[in-house]
Amino acid sequence: MRHILKPEKLVVLAKLVILGLLVIPFLTGCTSQVVNPTKVNQLPKIYPDYIGVTIPAEIAPLNFNWVEDGIDGMDVVVKGSKGGELHVQGDEAAFDIADWHALAQQNKGGQLTFTVCIMKDGQWTQYKDFIVTVSPYALDEWGLTYRRIAPSYEVFSKMGLYQRDLSNFNEYPIIENTQVPGMCVNCHSAHQTDPQQFVFHVRGGHGATMFQIDGQREWLKASNEQLGGSMVYPYWHPSGKYCAFSTNQTRQAFHVTPNERIEVFDLSSDVFVYNPATHEILTDSLLQTKDWSENSPVFSSDGRTLYYMTCKQQEYPAHYKDEKYNLCKISFDPETGKFGEKVDTVFNAVAMGKSLTWPRPSYDGKYILFTLMDYGYFSIWHEESEQWLLDLQTGEARELKEINSPKADSYHNWNVNSHWIVFTSRRDDGYYSRLYLTSVDDQGHFSKPFLLPQRHPKAYYEESVYSFNTPDFTKTKVDFDAYKAGREISSDKRVETKVK
Mind listing the pLDDT tens digit for each residue in 216-232? Predict the structure, then answer.
């Protein structure tokens, strides 16, 4: 007998078929059980390499990918030494942000054990477990600020200053050169990671140095004729009353050798201190010498010492490899704004046949972190550049072998409690500078660095054509009106500075 379905039953059947089609991918997308995995005595091949790192409890999830292509799936179980467990499965290890933070906070001062299984050709393989330590030291920062720029040398392509929330993957522009076409924004600095006092420099036809203090902006004239240059490489005094700068006549030269690309050097440079309240520039003959280049000043944690780099002036560009910097210091009186009467050498890099750059004192007064290289001071272009630590109590300095790599390790800054640093490195692919974080314990030992987490790390870093540089921590999100700032930059309204 032939059965003919009524129209209303056909509608019901059609809905069931559609529902069935929808159910199939949902079921296949569910977590499948890892059955009878083949166990191997080797660590998993993951990117980024988070094996054995130490992290702050506040950091974004350590999402990772399998290094090689061609796997069918990944299964990851994370167990805390103080309790708690996460289980994810898919093409990559991607953790829920809230669940990750709950587990990390529960295990602060403890460890997370990762069990990674890989499905390939229908067979599960279980790799040796690895450990991530959750530091007892708080991060005490909202995020990072940094400049992101393509390596275009003389032509400013899309670039800008950005900020990143370290608890998740959100990035926000502070200012981009789309607001100031054809110009470069650089040399940003906050007062001890607090963006209530914030400064950066703009290069180009409408160049200026911007100060934003408690939400109020002013734009300083790009250069002061008495100084002979602009205000760059800023560093705030602990009191917030002053900001140290150098003024540099910078040039670029290009190499013809395959392993070197570009060299940056100064025809001259001097160091001074600026008072934003009075617009006065405080100078001293010891910091503005004819035959020496003074550069990159920073204040000590108590504000009574000004550290800076200095080198003997050379004939450029012919003798650029003879440009080698030492670390020096001079006393500073914050009450009077007066400098001391003598300069002392703190670290003699020249005696080692090396050059020192980017000194950064820890905020707790214990150390100065610096970069050592063969010559010059623009370390981001020097493959041999490596990080060193000077103990201010003992006067001893050591190479930080535990965090250095064969590629350029450079620009670094401390967080406010001096238990974390952020720095740039080209260790990932040798071409692009990326951001790494590492912890510092009470004895001055550094943990294995880890790459700044991204939501989809392999895709993010493989597709990115930008380098990160001059990173710093920020206590809160930087509140900055880029639209209004762009209009202000385009105007000719500038504040004059005066040399005291």
Answer: 999 999 888 787 778 88
Contact 56, 132 (CB under 8 A): no
Two structure tokens written together for 238: 């602990």
Are the CB atoms for 90 and 97 separated by under 8 Å?
Answer: no
Q: Kindly report the pTM of this predicted structure.
A: 0.89
Dig out the tokens for 341 from the structure. 């009467």
Alpha carbon of residue 445 to chain centroid: 20
Retrieve residue 280's tokens. Answer: 């006065």
For 240, other C-beta atoms within 10 Å of its C-beta total 15
The residue behind tokens 């617009």 is: 279
Q: Do 174 and 189 contact (CB within 8 A), yes or no?
A: no
Q: Is the peptide bond before 151 cis (omega within 30 degrees of 0)?
A: no
Mark 117-140 as b/e (b = at least 16 C-beta within 10 Å): bbbeeeebbbbeebebbbbebebb
Contact (Cβ atoms closer than 8 angstroms) between residue 314 and residue 269: no
The 10s digit of each residue's pLDDT in 256-309 is 455 555 566 565 589 999 999 999 999 999 999 988 999 999 999 999 999 999
State the pLDDT at residue 156.
54
Residue recorded with tokens 């924004």: 185
